[in-house]
Amino acid sequence: MHIKILGASAGGGFPQWNCNGVNSAAVRAKKPGFQARTQSSLAISSNGTHWVLLNASPDLRQQINDNSELWPAADGPLRASPIKAVVLTNADVDHIAGLINLREMQAFNVYGSSRVLDTLNANTIFNILNPDFVPRIKIELNSVFNVQGPDGDLGLSIEAFDVPGKVALYLEKENTGPGFGTQEGDTIGLKVTDTASGQFFYYVPGCAQVDDKLAARLKDAPLVFFDGTLFTDDEMLKQGLMPKTGKRMGHISISGPEGSIKAFEDLNVKQKIYVHINNSNPVLDENSTERKIVEAAGWKVGFDGMEIQI
Ligand code: MLT
Ligand code: MN
Predict the structure, then answer these.
(1) CA 283 – CA 294 distance, rounded (Å)
(2) pLDDT at position 104, please?
(3) Residues of the chain whose pLDDT is less than 50?
(4) 187 with 250: CB under 8 angstroms?
(5) Would you tell me how many other CB atoms lie within 10 Å of the CB of residue 141?
(6) Which CATH number fits domain 2-305: 3.40.50.300, 3.30.390.10, 3.60.15.10, 3.40.50.720?
(7) Which of the listed residues 169, 187, 226 should we mutate to test ligand 1's pocket, taking the one with most ligand atoms within 8 A of CB?
(8) Is 252's C-beta closer than 6 angstroms to any atom of ligand 1?
(9) Model pTM?
(10) Distance, CA 196 to ligand 1 centroid (Å)?
(11) 142 with 185: CB under 8 angstroms?
């Protein structure tokens, strides 16, 4: 299976358009050790020819232009795309807005939980993806499905499972308690398997907590892409960027007693890669202490264009 990170950044990207925080300013100034990143998405393929996007970021047009695997074949028909399906893990702007780039009556399938499809269905702008060409297929949680493109099976199966998280920011409901109206299916993780080889990995770009259930699932996994939004829960407050903690946003932090380094410590995951990294996160500075800490704990910091074959 071919896996490529199209965008390793969280919502807003790196740098974020209106941000003069220390990291965004440094990457704009081309300071050594800082690398720009687009918003959160992976591309996967069983054969290197047909591709499935895991999330469709607002930067998808740039991501397609930057990754020749996603171009129409030079000797192909006048209208064509190797992108045969998109699988959505939540309704974050950084995960669904890119669908709008995929208009033009090109056939592919969109997969999402009922909660995420409800959001697409409620926002008529997504009808620019004509349902005659772009069916929306409901993911049943905790059951395995074979990912299909318009011309048939793509050689990949997926099992989706609910993970601790929060409903998308713009869907939050007031006075509904700490979850702001979050329901099952608002944030899912994916186990993706190459059906021919049996090789698999997990993709969990948004996660509030590694509870016992998630820990048991990820134990001994060969490869996990995981929520690396923040290094510390209050880093955005400390940097004066936003009056919100990671917890309030539904994101686990990397450090601390409840953080992902600690949570993965005994899980024996062979390859651990952070994705969905917020522009405030000090691990984005390749020379930072925090970067050394995550690397010493066996993690890699995902970057655009990072490729993995399993
Ligand atoms: C998140 O990951 O929490 C969201 O993408 C935040 C946002 O919509 O800006
Ligand atoms: Mn997000």
Answers:
(1) 8
(2) 87
(3) none
(4) yes
(5) 13
(6) 3.60.15.10
(7) 169
(8) no
(9) 0.98
(10) 35
(11) no
